[in-house]
Amino acid sequence: MFLGLANIFNLFKFKKKKEVEEAPVLWGAAVPKLQEYQEELVTLYNIPVSPQAIPGRGKIWVVQSPEGGDGSTTVATNLAALLAKKHPEKVILLDLDGIGKMRSRMGLPVSHCLVNILDWQDIRQVSQMQKAMVHHSSGVMVVPGVLHHDHIQFITADFIFNLLSLLKERFDHIILGCPPVGHQNNTWAVSLVADTILAVIKPDRTSLDLIKDNLSYLNRLGCSKRTYTLLNQAGMPGGIRKSDILNKKQSDINIDFILPYSEYVHEANNKRELVVLTRARDDFSQALKEIAEKLERQTNPIVDGLDKELLQKLAANCSAFQPPELEDEEHALENASSITAKIPGLKEHDYRRIKIYVQDALRRQLKPEENKGTRDPIVRSRLRSVISRALVNYSIPLGQSAAEMLVEELGNECLGFGPLEPFFYDPEVTEIKARWNQIRVEKHGQEFIADATFRDEQHIRDILDRMLAPTGRSVSPATPKVIARLFDGSRLIAHIPPVAVHGTLITIRRFRQDLNIENLIENGAMSREMAEFLRAAVITKQNLVVSGGTSSGKTTLLNCIASFIPHNESIVTIEDPAELQLQHPDVRSLEAKPPNIEGLGEVTMRELVADALRMAPKRIIVGECRKGETFDMLQAMNTGHEGSMNTMHANTAYLAGKRMVSMVQMADMGLPYDAIVELCSVVDIIVQAVKERKTGKRRIDHIAEVVGVKRNEEGVLSLELNYLWQCNKATGQFEWVADKFTRQEIFIDEGNWTPGWLKC
Questions:
Q1: Quick one: which H or E segment has residue 648?
Q2: Is 186 exposed, middle or buried (0-12, 13-18, 19+ CB in 10 A)?
């Protein structure tokens, strides 16, 4: 019934478009010669995945919402009317929702729709669609996709691609009202080629909950940079307060645009009118006008974070679909050679056959929520059984040990993190640094080059996208840097070109989850007497700072020290990104968020510290103070949150005190220098961590108490420190070096500290 896409593209991936011949009216009527894109994905598996994949001047805007009643129909119809004022006869509104809501809302008695009048094999021009088009008084051309629910089956991906290829040549703006994106409909096909996607929600608990899955699905389609969340009817009676939504008190969704509540919207809807025409000066109309103007200025939409496995499942029924196994035979050969060299008795062509069999079987058998990694028992069991069937079907004799090696390799390649996968399950690995042709790993403080590598630059990018997919973060040439927290709590930071000059760079900092104070004592990071001192410091609610250089073990040390906090005390942690893994029954964790593409939705560390004060914790722990949040942290320590902790970068306890002053100045509170130093004196104990240069061993170097402030010879005020503990570099022993300890009495009386060896 519908024209296929198979003869449209001869290339699988398009990179920078250098030249485009005049496009035909319909897909398949003639083949446009599209040359390769350097930076951006345009098609995959021979399916369009970018607005640039379909030629034409028109812009495609999709309006959808996670549930009915959120106002997506109102937004779409009024948005189309606003655009039609600027572009008369150049705006078309398509209703693909399946129940004709737009037709009803605009008061259009329509007896025909696209699916019951068109024979796509005969359609070559937009004029042949006139029977299904209705001209609204606003200047908008309205086209119902279907009239009844039973017509939905005809709205296929092929149908959508063909339809849009026609309309992009004729209209400046194509507005589509669609059902929520998902497996059960073909909104995914519209989303792939949309220039803009508006996800409409209302200030309602259900709407806020459902939009998370909706946005996650759009992100997996590579639409994160083209998707905008619109809060409709903000301030509506009985709804969640706008401020609570924007401040993330009711949801962690970033809001890009806001439409205020207006009683005139409901009035216009009931009269089958458009509020932007009848009440042009209303706040709702003015806000929507501003949104339309901003969206019109958006250019160069990009594909970002596309989940290729999801696309493969969705696109399998498209007429043009070509499976990925055919995509790059050269890379398949290279990969087969490297793997079969490790597995005795396995030939290259047999490996390729098994890999294709396994990929197909896992796509059909595994649910999305089951794809948790190759070490997941369910995944590993199914992977093993699939490989066993493949070996039997292809009559490939392979021993048990070789078969287990094959399970390992295919699991890493098809479901895991490729050559990085084994390092995520080695508890001794603390850092991974990778580029496509080299992987460096740190174990026991020593760095070495791993045997494994990525095949090429594209391979490391594919694995990076797979690592980022569950985190909701993404990376692209427009935003070439990303920081994310992985499934095991590891911190990932990645850079891609143009920031990474010689190709993608991935750095992963891993944190041991099983380390405790006893481990640190056994490893020589501290002495037992020092551990008892730190326990007493925590019990007596001393304000504590862990300072140290990069990769000196500050986070691990803070984790272990915090284990002394009594279980009846509540804790709020604040981090960017979240790294702490406290073994405590009452921990509430907050994580800072970067702004979205519009520069909105940012939640800073400083805001979270202020929020934490309102959450009534007994203690506040800040993962790392870097700038202005230090002021709020010190204020918290000084106003009823004794015993709070944080980390910071500094090479000595003395420099930690100086840096605290500098960071408070970044808060720009207008305080005089002396007042800032006095504020910093609220810190009681500074623990200095260090990483030895020769051995890579991480340990405590010294511990100091803050005993007040003092002026130097130049009259400059600074913190006065009393050094208590010091590591003797010659012997490796931790020694008490203080002649006097000002907090000795409270440590003994309230902290149950019994230092029989203490002589001060």
A1: strand 645-649
A2: buried
Helix, strand and coil in the chain, % to nearest 5 = 35, 20, 45
- Torsion (CA) 246, 248, 249, 251 in degrees, nearest 10: 110
Tokens linked to 492: 């990932």
Residues 6+ apart with CB under 8 A from 518: none
In the chain, how many domains are there? 4
Task: Give the burial string for 33-42 (b: 16+ CB within 10 Å, else e).
Answer: ebeebeebbb
| Nearest partner of 101 among 136, 146, 60, 160, judged by Cα | 146
Alpha helices in 223-282 (DSSP H): 242-246, 263-270, 275-278
Report how far residue 136's alpha carbon sits from residue 85's, in angstroms, rounded to the nearest whole number: 12
Lookup: tokens for 390: 């493949």
Contact between 246 and 234 (Cβ < 8 Å): no
Beta strand pairing status for 645-649 and 544-548? parallel
Find where tokens 């202020």 sit.
610
Question: How far apart are the C-alpha atoms of 463 and 435, rounded to whole Å?
Answer: 11
628 located within any domain? yes
Sheet strands (E) in 23-115: 43-44, 47-48, 59-64, 91-95
**CA separation, residue 554 to residues 217, 297, 491, 644 (Å):** 37, 46, 14, 15
State the Cα–Cα distance between residues 553 and 22, nearest whole angstrom. 60
Q: Does residue 412 sit in the same domain as residue 466? A: no
In a domain, 204, yes or no: yes
Helix axes 377-393, 348-365, angle to 10 degrees: 130
Tell me if 46 is assigned to some domain.
Answer: no
Q: Note the pLDDT tens digit of each residue in 170-217.
A: 899 999 988 888 755 778 889 999 999 999 999 998 888 889 888 988
Distances (CA, A) of 581 to 461, 509, 690: 29, 14, 21
DSSP for 714-730 reads T--EEEEEEEEEEE-TT
Q: For the chain, give the mean pLDDT.
A: 81
Taking the C-alpha atoms of residue 475 and residue 457, their distance in angstroms, rounded to an integer, is: 15
Domain that holds residue 470: 428-509
23 found inside a domain = no
Q: What is the pLDDT of residues 12-22, one digit of tens each?
A: 233 333 333 33
Cβ neighbours around 649 below 10 Å, total: 16
DSSP state for residue 420 in the 8-state scheme: G
Q: The CATH number of the domain where 204 resides is what?
A: 3.40.50.300
pTM score above 0.70:
no
Q: Per-residue b/e over 221-258, b at no fewer than 16 CB within 10 Å?
A: bbbbbbbbbbbbbbbbeebbebeebbebebbebbbbbb
Token digits for 554? 């500050």
Q: Retrieve residue 403's tokens.
A: 């078969």
Find residue 726's DSSP bridge partners: 702, 735
Nearest to 6 by CA among 163, 221, 158, 154: 158
Query: Which of residues 615 and 354 earns the better pLDDT score?
Result: 615
Q: How far apart are CA 344 and CA 175, in angstroms?
A: 58
Pick from 418, 412, 422, 421: which is nearest to 436 by CA?
Answer: 418
The answer to whether residues 96 and 230 belong to one domain is yes
pLDDT tens digits, residue range 517-573? 998 999 899 999 999 999 999 999 999 999 999 888 898 899 999 999 999 999 999
Any residues with CB less than 8 A from the CB of 156 and at least 6 apart, and which?
2, 186, 317
